[in-house]
């Protein structure tokens, strides 16, 4: 069974690109434009990894990180994928429970390595030639 990744990203092009790429790598992916009703989506999809943008139109990623701490999904690894490049942004996200922080734009090889650190692909996709 494929590992499940939830992407919370308001930029349509980024979200669709990440979804397509990660599905090609052997993961099941759900992409969300907004963080509203996150708990409902978590319960329905049961992600094993979350990719989170911090700047969202309705609620910021920091607030979502705080909300996750009070849920059964608090142990699901969250990788922040954000345009915020300041060290204070990174420190704040990590203090709120993010496991890793990547600054956009991120190389796919780097993203793949980090994702696989937290959620290895299925045995069937392990022969994928990409790094």
UniProtKB/TrEMBL annotation:
The keyword Lipid biosynthesis does not apply. Keywords: DNA-binding, Phosphoprotein. PANTHER family: RESPONSE REGULATORY DOMAIN-CONTAINING PROTEIN (PTHR44591:SF3), STRESS RESPONSE REGULATOR PROTEIN 1 (PTHR44591). Residues 4-119 form the Response regulatory domain. GO terms for biological process: phosphorelay signal transduction system. It comes from the Bacteria. Pfam families: Response_reg. The keyword rRNA processing does not apply. Coiled coil: none annotated. This is DNA-binding response regulator. One of its GO terms (molecular function) is DNA binding. The lineage of its organism: Bacteria, Bacillati, Cyanobacteriota, Cyanophyceae, Nodosilineales.
């Amino acid at each position: 069974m494929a590992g499940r990744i939830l992407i919370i990203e308001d930029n349509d092009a980024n979200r669709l690109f990440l979804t397509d790429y990660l599905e090609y790598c052997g993961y099941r992916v759900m992409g969300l434009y907004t963080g509203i009703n996150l708990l409902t989506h978590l319960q329905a999809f049961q992600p094993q990894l979350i990719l989170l943008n911090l700047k969202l139109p309705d609620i910021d990623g920091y607030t979502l990180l705080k909300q996750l701490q009070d849920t059964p999904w608090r142990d699901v690894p969250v990788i922040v994928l954000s345009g915020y490049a300041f060290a204070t942004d990174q420190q704040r996200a990590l203090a709120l429970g993010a496991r890793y922080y990547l600054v956009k734009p991120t190389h796919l090889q780097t993203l793949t390595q980090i994702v696989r650190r937290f959620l290895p692909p299925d045995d069937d996709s392990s022969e994928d030639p990409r790094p």
